[in-house]
Amino acid sequence: MRYLFQLVAACALLPGFASAQLLGSTGLAPKEQKKKAHRDNVEWMWQYSPPPADGRENELLQDPRFVPFLQSYLTAPQAFWGPQQGPRKSLADTAFDFLAVPGQVIADSERYITVTGCVFHFCSNRGLLWVDLNAKDPLVIFAAIDWTTENRTPDDPAATYTVWIFSDQTLSAKSDDKNRVPPAFLKSIARWTAAPVPGQKHLQNITTAVLVDPDGTPHQLPPDALGVTSTEVKGK
């Protein structure tokens, strides 16, 4: 029954939904224009952090400021999620899809907010939204774990996943670069990927990481370069 449920869940994304495609010119949604009216203050998000222990993500997603916030900061084109024919979904819509089933809202160092969730009816595809509330120009990073081994069900430990990371600012995985990925984000994504999908015991086998610039340029990297926990399970 579990296999049947997962097969039905996977098929719910088809036809017309594609996964694990490296960014290219075909099918890319255009880069969205940043809506500066919503970029001044994002501290309103703090109210949804603990208590309670897991925060209040459901209420956060329903806040009338949340969707405009995503549209303002998540403007890069993406090509891993959306209909196969025609343009992909916008990154803001993609982020909402990957957070649709509430997970947690976590506060770190009285400065950083991490929001987690997963795709409705397909929680193996998970999302993380990380925000630096104290930065002069708030830094927003969205990460998505996307199932890529379509001949293996998501509950198979050998199934593989790609993690896509998008930021509203150009970031580098090199630790000595001025615009390096913030250590606080690396801590957050390590904690996230070190936890299994709810209802499963094994960690997801993340084999590929892609850091995407605001203009949509992808940089494929080893998962551990971005703080990602990788189980490196070998298929049989």
Short synopsis of the structure:
With 236 residues, the chain is an alpha+beta fold.
Describe this structure in words.
- With 236 residues, the protein is α+β, with helices and mostly antiparallel strands.
- The chain has one domain (2-226).
- It contains five helices and seven strands.
- Strands 1-2-3-4-5-6-7 form a seven-stranded mixed beta sheet, sandwiched between helices.
- The longest helix has 11 residues, at 183-193.
- The protein is globular, with a radius of gyration of 17 Å.
- Mean pLDDT is 83; it is low at 1-21, 23-27 and 35-39.
- Keywords: Signal.
- Residues 1-20 form the signal peptide.
Which regions have little confidence, pLDDT < 50, spanning 5+ residues?
1-21, 23-27, 35-39
If you average the pLDDT, what whole number results?
83
Q: Count up the helices.
A: 5
Strand/helix succession: HHHHEEEEEHEE
Q: What percent of residues are in strands? A: 15-25%
Oligomer type: single chain
| Number of structural domains | 1
Inertia-based shape: globular
Region (Disordered): 215-236
Signal peptide: 1-20
Keywords: Signal
